[in-house]
């Protein structure tokens, strides 16, 4: 999804001031995980909903926030195998943009993204598995505009980006620094949920 035209359009809308100054990011990714023997439920193998599907809301927030994350809080509900089957978290960024998200294996399939700014709101209903044609909703001053985005089939742009990186044509869209920050944020969220307190992450990256 990070390479899809919809994500690139979301970046452009935020950077171009379509909703004013970005204030809050709200997002979710859930689905009903019904298989008893599934790697997602294996604690020793890094299972759990945050690592599996929560990484998507966290990564898109990191992309759009416009500043590094500085602290997080989190709550989790564990299943029989000890992994988090439901997770809810909050992330504060250095510029005071706030992200709230939830993810999990116990609810029906759901994805959404809502960006609220000083002057407007933009919403995506399939932010993490977009179709070739997507529709964003941009609300400003009481007026709702549908923004149509045409892109490639899912994964095609990611493969092209990998090829360009391997061949030295251009720097990959997702940098190693960003990946490390993303992993540190997920780890801090788990720590915050375990310890029941806000957790700083600036020193982890």
How would you describe this structure to a colleague?
Helices cover 29% and strands 33% of the residues. The chain has four helices and nine strands; from the N terminus they run αβαβββββββααβ. The protein has helices at residues 5-15, 49-65, 156-166, 176-195; strands spanning 22-30, 69-78, 84-93, 98-104, 110-117, 120-124, 133-140, 143-150, 199-200. It has a nine-stranded mixed β-sheet with strand order 8-7-6-5-1-4-3-2-9. Strand 6 and strand 7 (133-140) form a beta hairpin. The model has no long low-confidence stretch (mean pLDDT 95).
What's the SSE pattern?
HEHEEEEEEEHHE
Query: On the 0-100 scale, what is the average pLDDT?
Result: 95
- Gyration radius, rounded: 17 Å
Amino- and carboxy-terminal Cα gap:
24 Å
Question: What is the number of beta strands?
Answer: 9
Helix count, DSSP H or I runs of 4 or more residues: 4
Helix content: 25-40%
Question: Which structural category fits the helices and strands?
Answer: alpha+beta
Could you name the ranges where pLDDT drops below 50 across 5 or more consecutive residues? none
Tell me about the largest β-sheet: 9 strands, mixed
Task: Trace the largest sheet across and list its strands.
Answer: 8-7-6-5-1-4-3-2-9
Percent strand equals 25-35%
| Tertiary shape | globular
Quickly list its features:
9 strands, 205 residues, globular, alpha+beta, 33% strand, 4 helices, nine-stranded mixed sheet
Task: Give the topology.
Elements: H1 5-15, E1 22-30, H2 49-65, E2 69-78, E3 84-93, E4 98-104, E5 110-117, E6 120-124, E7 133-140, E8 143-150, H3 156-166, H4 176-195, E9 199-200
Parallel strand pairs: 1-4
Antiparallel strand pairs: 1-5, 2-3, 2-9, 3-4, 5-6, 6-7, 7-8
